[in-house]
Specification:
By secondary structure, the chain is α/β, with parallel strands linked by helices. The chain has a single domain, classed as 3-Layer(aba) Sandwich (Rossmann fold). It is about 35% helix and about 20% strand. The chain contains seven helices and eight strands, in the order βββαβααβαβαβαβα. Helix 1 packs across helix 7. The chain is globular and about 45 Å long.
Length: about 220
């Protein structure tokens, strides 16, 4: 179904089981769902939300283009979060029932969005930022200076082994910023793991995402 331009697909309508919300750049989340089944995840519902304005919707505040392609990030994450919590989540829960907990997961810029959500809403008990764009200007300082609206029960962070060797100077900081966020979460008594995977940012994103979901579920 489509809600205010976002295409929403529900996989595994498991009553009284956790619901995991995943923003996707393209597709309907089927590859991630299939990978989750291959990892023997316990019963849950996966809600894939495809947004048409990815760079704007997944960014918490504006950022000029850093990659030379001319694309900037509009910083409309608050609008996307409102759509998610006020429109999409009630619709999903009306379909599959109220879950024991809900989680938010994302890859790349959606991983940044996922890591930002605990500071903006109490809707999610668990979070996974998979190869998250935690290099985003100002994010680490923001995380250090702000408290959680709701302290996550569990937080999963991951990164590819070659991501810290990207050509862009700012993006190369992702290893340090992800490690720093991991340490910050530990200091704040959040059950956290930082998993490192082989390869660059584009290697097996579906499997990496599924591994993050599997860890949250277990």
């Amino acid at each position: 179904m489509t809600i205010d331009g976002d295409e929403v697909t529900i996989w595994g309508k498991a009553a009284r089981c956790p619901i995991v919300y995943l923003h996707v750049f393209e597709g309907k989340g089927e590859d991630v769902w299939t990978r989750c089944q291959g990892l023997d995840c316990p019963p849950f519902s996966l809600v894939a939300v495809r947004v048409p304005d990815w760079d704007d919707a997944m960014s918490p505040w504006p950022c000029e283009s850093i990659s030379g392609d001319g694309r900037s990030c509009g910083g409309h994450a608050a609008n996307q979060l409102a759509l998610l919590t006020e429109r999409i989540m009630p619709m999903v829960e009306g379909t599959v029932g109220t879950p024991p907990w809900s989680g938010v997961v994302g890859y790349s810029l959606a991983g940044l969005f996922a890591a930002w959500t605990p500071y903006a809403t109490g809707a999610f008990a668990r979070m996974a930022s998979v190869s998250g764009s935690l290099w985003y200007p100002g994010f680490l300082d923001f995380a250090r200076e702000h408290g959680f609206v709701r302290t996550p029960d569990r937080a999963y962070l991951s990164l590819g082994s070659k991501e810290a060797h990207a050509g862009n100077r700012l993006m190369r900081s992702v290893g340090e910023t992800t490690q720093s966020l991991y340490e910050l979460y530990q200091e704040r008594a959040v059950e956290t793991v930082f998993e490192k995977n082989p390869g660059n940012h584009f290697r097996e994103p579906d499997l990496r995402t599924a591994r993050g979901i599997a860890w949250l579920l277990r």
